[in-house]
Design goal:
By secondary structure, the protein is α/β, with parallel strands linked by helices. The protein folds into 2 domains: 208 residues, Alpha-Beta Complex (DHBP synthase), CATH 3.90.870; 81 residues, Rossmann fold (3-Layer(aba) Sandwich), CATH 3.40.50.11030. Helices cover 31% and strands 18% of the residues. β9 and β10 form a beta hairpin. It is globular and about 60 Å long. The two termini are 34 Å apart. It binds threonylcarbamoyladenylate and magnesium ion (MG). The site of threonylcarbamoyladenylate (TXA) has 27 residues, from β5, β6 and β9.
């Protein structure tokens, strides 16, 4: 890949991971792969680096960030764990699950990264490159998805470059992300609550807890997570959901057996597999945009398992823009 001055792209290996850890130590911004999507990392304890991170993404407000750590021991240094939270961490970390927990006062995550909240979102990503980087750096790394604010999250280094070229110091290329949608967020600020459906199915979490998760209040009442705001994961094209067949001028985003159609078509999973569909979702939305499609008809996706996260992102992609 051709890097503009200012942003280096390096294949993931021992040397690039070392360079990335060194850059983080100096307050640099490093994009790196996780199993969900690419993250844009900064030293969680360095307020100035965190401020640069918000600026690079063009976040309109300071929204709290997820602190990424290499293991549960490191997570314990920044947050207090309730027994139920501990159960989930034991069952699913490393993995696509973020826990919102009371922060430790001496946890080393800057107030700016927490947007002044007394809770902190933590996760241990299940990706060898992310884990190696976290170990090499030796402290918490805050990392939102490595896209411009409001865009679709990146699932490849090329996606990161198309959004953030020239705005970040280094991109570690570790190939495509296996899960493809962001982590599931469960808050322990009160009763365990699903704040964002994501790469870990709600059903799996509820099985371990032994009871259903509470449902988050709507974004209109309290935007606890910006991912809950309407029109957050937006491609440029207009999006029409639950389409049975494309209309004139539309491109097709299919799921399962697709109607025959001569126009631009991308299929999330021809065999109707929700895990495969999640992995393809954001790259297909980006590819549809790149094709110049002005409107996208999306076939319906079942609402179980990872379908909950897929439908959540599609609903946002279809939400009215301002
Ligand atoms: O899969 C992921 O979670 C990816 C990868 C890079 O790890 N990261 C990611 O980060 O999606 P981001 O910043 O795009 O989304 C984090 C979400 C935001 O909606 C934010 O509001 C919410 O987590 N969040 C962070 N801290 C929170 C807190 N203390 N309470 C409630 N929500 C919080
Ligand atoms: Mg994001």
């Amino acid at each position: 890949m051709n890097a503009e001055p200012g942003t280096r792209v390096l294949k993931a290996d021992d040397a690039s991971i070392k360079a990335a850890a060194a850059s983080l130590r100096l307050g640099g911004l490093v994009a790196f792969p996780t199993e969900t999507v690419y993250g844009l990392g900064a030293d969680a304890g360095n307020g100035e680096a965190v401020a640069r991170l918000y600026a690079a993404k063009g976040r309109p407000a300071f929204n709290p960030l997820i602190a990424h750590v290499a293991d549960i021991e490191a997570a314990r240094h920044i947050a207090f764990f309730y027994p139920d939270a501990q159960k989930l961490a034991d069952a699913f970390w490393p993995g696509p699950l973020t826990l919102v927990l009371p922060k430790r006062p001496d946890g080393g995550v800057s107030d700016l990264a927490l947007a002044g909240l007394d809770t902190v979102a933590v996760r241990v990503p299940d990706h060898p490159v992310a884990l190696a980087l976290l170990r090499a750096f030796g402290g918490p790394v805050v990392a939102p998805s490595a896209n411009r604010s409001g865009h679709v999250s990146p699932t490849s280094a090329a996606h990161v470059m198309s959004d953030l070229r020239g705005r970040v110091d280094l991109v570690i290329d570790g190939g495509a992300c296996a899960v493809g949608v962001e982590s599931t967020i469960v808050s322990f600020a009160g009763a365990p609550t699903l704040l964002r459906p994501g790469g870990l199915a709600r059903e799996a979490i509820e099985r371990v807890l032994g009871h259903p998760l509470a449902v988050a209040v709507t974004a209109e009442e309290a935007p606890l997570a910006p991912g809950m705001l309407a029109s957050h994961y937006a491609p440029k094209a207009r999006v029409r959901l639950d389409a049975e067949a494309p209309r004139d001028g539309e491109a097709l985003l299919a799921f399962g057996p697709a109607p025959s159609f001569s126009g631009t078509t991308f299929n999330l999973s021809p065999r109707g597999d929700l895990v495969e569909a999640a992995a393809n979702l954001f790259s297909h939305l980006r590819a549809l945009d790149a094709s110049g499609a002005k409107a996208i008809a999306v076939m319906s996706v079942p609402h179980e398992g990872l379908g909950e996260a897929i439908n959540d992102r599609l609903a946002r992609a279809a939400a009215p823009r301002n």
